[in-house]
Amino acid sequence: MAVDERGRLQLAEAAKRAFGDEAGITLMELLPPVGWADVATKHDLDRLDQRMDRLEQRMDRFEVKLDDVAREIRAQTWKLMTLMAAVMGIVVAAVRL
Asked: 49-92: per-residue pLDDT in tens?
């Protein structure tokens, strides 16, 4: 059963009559402003924590793969630069002939 604003106001008035104005207001302020179905439970938080842990593990694996790709790009760059220098040497030697 969903609690609407009218029901909350009736409860506030009943709390004021039963406990006095100040205690009734304090009691109502302690209640969540929405229905209890919208409040996260410890189980919900545990499941969220597990999901975050799995996401962190996936991000760690992705970071390792990204580091591998960066290492390969650096290696390929050095190989290409070496090849270009060798080709330039051959071209210079061929021009001198």
From this structure: 999 999 999 999 999 999 999 999 999 999 999 999 999 999 99
> Residue 22, Cα to own-chain centre: how many angstroms?
42
Sign of torsion over alpha carbons 21, 23, 26, 28: negative
Nearest to 81 by CA among 89, 70, 92, 71: 89
Given a contact cutoff of 8 angstroms between Cβ atoms, the answer to whether 36 and 3 are in contact is no
Instruction: Report the residue count for the chain.
Output: 97
Output the CA–CA distances (angstroms, integers) from residue 68 to 15, 60, 73, 77, in the order listed: 65, 13, 9, 14
What's 41's DSSP letter? P
Place of tokens 């709390």: 15
The average pLDDT across 37-41 equals 75
pLDDT at 34: 63
